[in-house]
Amino acid sequence: MLRFMTNLKVQEVTFPSACRRILLFFGKNSYFQNEVLVKEYVVSAAGYRASHSTPIQWSQHYEREAYRRQTHDNGLNFFNWFCGHHLAGSGRIAEVGPCDRLGQ
Distance (Å, rounded) from C-alpha 28 to C-alpha 34? Predict the structure, then answer.
């Protein structure tokens, strides 16, 4: 599924509250209809907490498989990371700084 990703951007927002948004851009694919998926993290003194993600508009033939992966797989995979906000370690990706993203 990630092979259809065409771009990735990180936005830092300070108003009305501090947060980071991860924007994933996708080309046309057979899994879902969204062109952009957004995962948002609230920044606080306690760290990063996933707060919101774009609802994925699954293609009709893939919707059942996506649901199965979300509910039956307890590991941290794309489905669980993007849709779930409760998994241990799901906030870790928001801690990556500019140097980490660039491999410096």
Answer: 9
